[in-house]
Amino acid sequence: MSPASCEIPGCDRPRRKRGWCESHYSRFRATGSPLSKGRTVLAAECAVAECATKPVAKGLCRKHYYQTPDQKQKAADRALRVKESNARALAATTPPPPGLACAVIGCRREKQSKGYCDHHYRRMRLTGEPGPAEVKSVRPPGDHVACSVGGCADRALVRGWCGAHYQRWRRFGDPLHFPEPMDRTCSIDGCGRMSNARKLCAAHYRRWQLYGDPLITHWSSHTAKDGDRRCAVTDCDRRTYAPGVELCNMHYQRKRKHGDVNIRSVPRVATCVTCGIRFDPGEGRARKYCGRACKPSGRIAGSVNMRRWVDKLGDEEGWKCWLCGEPVDPGLFWPHQYAGSVDHVIPASRGGTDERRNLRLAHLTCNCSRKDKAIAESD
Q1: Which class for 321: exposed (0-12), middle (13-18), buried (19 or more C-beta within 10 A)?
Q2: What are the residue ranges of helices labelled H in the chain?
Q3: Cα separation, 361 vs 239, whole angstroms
Q4: I need a labelling partner for 80 at 20 to 30 A (CA). Which of 18, 90, 138, 238 fits?
Q5: Is the peptide bond prior to 69 cis by the omega test (within 30 degrees of 0)?
Q6: pLDDT tens, 318-345?
Q7: pLDDT for 126-157, tens place per residue?
Q8: 298 CB contacts (<8 Å, ≥6 apart)?
């Protein structure tokens, strides 16, 4: 067996670690034996009694694994190396001037806050005393400094207090002060929701904003009682819409829309620009035509670009393109480039209408090339 080969008999693979090849070393890491061919199934719980934590190595959980003698010795050696390294670095540093040195006798560091270096200042905040000049842990090994308030076992963070007592001292000046709990429920009887403003929940506060009374659900369903504001309209016994308004919700909306509390709705009537018929344009719509039959359009692919308008313009103008002057073949249809199409003399984007005097017959390609340009611009 050559010195560079694996120490396991019968294995000629090159040696990697611990005298084994990569395969046998992986088996050793996984199972604890380089000769094992299968992975050892770890136990469900740590081997230490009364510990139900899942094991991570050698049958032990992470906590107990690092508490083994080998791991403790490694941790102690590592701490000793860090301490020696810090001591060497501190000895090599130049001591600061007398006015900038730490207030602790024997400390060669520069002061940072309240006359102490950062190490002694942190120790002062945690324990209340800066301690000796040596840098060491401010907490006993395996334990922590408890809060100085009697009966509190939490870790001390600042001024010898835990976070909760320190915040009480900051806000109230006394770490033992505990404010009385505030009643945050809605002031309305029978409502257990949390208050939002004016000691009212969100629902009752919204009602107070709208109607001036948090107990009203809707104005139109409640008639005015004695002492309430009543609508100014004769024979109307509803309450007013809101504080400062003399009308109920219904009459207020009528006056806002139509200018008169007695008008329920105003019919809208418009006149078609093509046929002259009067029609209802609908709510919120500015229609100029009574229907699609009266609305010629220059949109090529639109459904309102009906063929009958092309035929009508061709019969009246002799099937001749008004842009190029060439004849238009009535046998061609969209989308052929030389088919007839409806063109606006004044483009619709420039204020042109769809009236007959503003419509001319043009080739589809001429119409598309012109776009929305004026005649002088297209030439």
Answers
A1: buried
A2: 22-31, 62-65, 69-92, 118-127, 163-172, 202-211, 249-258, 307-317, 364-370, 375-378
A3: 64
A4: 18
A5: no
A6: 999 999 989 999 888 888 888 888 888 8
A7: 777 887 776 555 444 445 678 888 888 788 88
A8: 305, 341, 342, 343, 344, 347, 348, 367
Tokens 């001292």 map to which residue?
Answer: 169
DSSP 234-263: TT--BBPSSTT--S-HHHHHHHHHHS-TT-
Residues 6+ apart with CB under 8 A from 124: 114, 116, 130
Quickly tell me which residue has 């007959």 as its tokens.
356
Model-level pTM greater than 0.85? no
Residue 363 burial (CB count, 10 A)? 24
Total length of the chain:
379
Q: Could you count the other beta carbons within 10 Å of the beta carbon of residue 132? A: 13
Residue 185 to residue 191: CA distance in whole angstroms? 8
- For 38, residues 6+ apart whose C-beta sits below 8 A from its C-beta are 31
Q: Rounded CA gap, 298 and 305, in Å?
A: 7
pLDDT in tens, 24-70: 888 887 777 888 776 555 567 787 777 878 877 777 787 777 777 77
Q: Give residue for tokens 């000796």.
A: 132
Pairing type for strands 278-279 and 359-363 reads: unpaired
Helix/strand number for the chain, H first, E second: 10, 4
Q: Provide the CA 60 distance to its chain's centre, in angstroms.
A: 44
Q: Lowest-pLDDT range, 9-13, 35-39, 257-261, 307-311?
A: 35-39
How far is the first Cα of the chain from the last one, in angstroms, to the nearest whole number?
99
